[in-house]
UniProtKB/TrEMBL annotation:
Location (main, coarse): membrane
Xref: InterPro entries: Ac45_acc_su, VAS1/VOA1_TM, VAS1_LD
Record keywords: Membrane, Transmembrane, Transmembrane helix
Segments traversing the membrane: 118-141
GO molecular function, one term: ATPase activator activity
Membrane disposition: Single-pass membrane protein
Subcellular location field: Membrane
Similarity remark: Belongs to the vacuolar ATPase subunit S1 family.
Entry protein name: V-type proton ATPase subunit S1-like
Record-level GO BP terms: regulation of cellular pH
């Protein structure tokens, strides 16, 4: 794949060449393409060559990444082909990079395989927070299961029943003619006392 800049004044002679390869993987039962090498040419002369790493996708998909760069701060997916090469003097960065080498239909990109790692910082933070919440929940359930009930340590005992003689003022009005002052009345009372063990 070759990218040319057309009639732009300063970039007329600049060409970016993408060398793509395709391979069949039995595990996924499909062909995958990968960006093998990137070359910068100026006036038909190769100026810099970079080996590409981790830029691959199924042949029926496209590959997309927010940044593909030779700079370390952008995770350096483009590496100079040789330690003594002049490629080290070049800094290449593509913003919102998307490429598809095969099975292009109607000039549109297919569904994109994104370069975002499965364990991105946001996903890792979410996993850590979920783990902390699970630990708190497990501790709370453990405390609830081992919570001691007061019913086991609450004991009520009743004392034996006894009779208490009622006083005269509990008997009602003494002026009633039908009541005799010689009778004795008793009330059945039951005392309870409770003990709580903690």
């Amino acid at each position: 794949v070759t990218l040319k800049f057309g009639d732009i004044d300063n970039l007329k002679g600049l060409v970016i060449r993408f060398l793509l390869t395709t391979s069949y993987y039995q595990l996924s039962v499909q062909n995958w393409f990968s960006l093998h090498r990137l070359q910068l040419l100026y006036n038909h002369s190769v100026q810099a060559t970079f080996n590409a790493t981790r830029i691959y996708a199924p042949s029926s998909y496209s590959y997309h990444c927010d940044r593909v760069s030779s700079l370390q701060r952008y995770d350096a997916l483009l590496i100079p082909s040789s330690a003594n090469d002049v490629s080290k003097l070049w800094e290449v960065t593509f913003i919102d990079f998307q490429i598809q080498g095969f099975n292009i239909q109607e000039g549109h990109f297919a569904y994109a395989k994104d370069c975002a790692s499965f364990f991105s910082p946001a996903i890792l933070m979410g996993l850590v927070m979920s783990l902390i919440l699970l630990l708190v929940l497990a501790y709370a359930l453990h405390m609830l299961i081992h919570l001691k009930s007061l019913d086991r340590h609450y004991e009520c005992k009743a004392s034996p029943a006894y009779f208490v003689q009622m006083k005269d003022n509990d008997m009602g009005d003494e002026k009633e003619p039908l009541r005799s002052s010689g009778n004795e009345s008793y009330e059945l009372r039951n005392q309870q006392f409770c003990k709580i063990y903690i």
